UniProtKB/TrEMBL annotation:
It holds the Pfam family Bac_luciferase. This is LLM class flavin-dependent oxidoreductase. InterPro entries: Bact_Lucif_Oxidored, Luciferase-like_dom, Luciferase-like_sf. One of its GO terms (molecular function) is oxidoreductase activity. The keyword NADP does not apply. Keywords: Monooxygenase, Oxidoreductase.
Amino acid sequence: MRFGVNFFPTIGPADRPAAQYYDECLRLTEMADELGYHHVKTVEHYFFPYGGYSPDPVTFLAAAAARTSRLRLVTGAAIPAFTHPVKLAAKLAMLDNISHGRLDAGFGRAFLPDEFEAFQIPMDESRDRFADGVEAIRRLWSEEDTVWEGRHHRFGPVTLLPRPFQRPHPPILVAAAFTPASCEQAGRDGHGLLLVPSISSTEHVQEMLRLYRAARAEAGHDPRGEVQMSYIASVSEDGARAREAGRRNAEHYSASLAEAVSSWGRTRSDAYAGYEKLADRVKKSDYGRQLAENKVLAGDPDEVAAQLAVIRDWYGDVTVSLQVNSGTATFQEAERGLRLFAEHVLPRFATAGEPVGR
């Protein structure tokens, strides 16, 4: 298994100034690079405390690239529907060159109605815009004199500059929430997968992974693929203190998510079947159950290692992204947790043939 850090802010100006949050995240990023973590990841969201401090993952990751030398830089995830594919392909190619080939390009459909409304993009178009955007970006990276004739964009012939540092292009990962068909398509296309296990049952995540890996194998790709899973994490020498800190953080995360998805109460889209129930599902989330079901990580290093051993049995040697500085955790708590994890947990899960954590 490999482990990285995921910065998914769930705060706003009333909680912490944006400049302070970025300063703290960049300090933690430098530390993660020194301690042997695999990656740093951040999200794209707008307007709400749920992710709103991260409207452009490329900007943050460019700053992270300047302060690190080994970490992979993961967009988790950029949203093609909100940016012209030429623009997004060029921004990401710049980041790949600035970092000398450390970019992992994660893409997502988005799911918040207020974001689609602000960008004046119909939610019913999200699936087509996502698929077209990812493929257009892949071709812009891989080809010269690219001609694109999609449903929503037409351009070419054009040759993108700069060319990506990684050839033929940076690794592509696809965010999937609930839909098994999305996992199958990612597998057929040879892409990696971004998952958040806390929003689904263990059995459903296992089924999505089974379909993903089977589709990769059938298409002639390595059946394992790159699977990244994000977990809220709280680690302390005192397990009880870690669990209490984890409870505060998980409940704060759920509250910020509930606010962001509240507009699903008045929104319907055929592209998002069942999402009208999302707000009720979020309100019913229970930290004790999440902890018992290993959907959040909390405890002393031995307890968290035991949780991860179960997760590895369930899902295999996936890559885990630790959300340690999302909302209620102080910088000192996040820093101490990352150090404890690196010293006492990382060595137990080293992937054969790779340096610890990488």
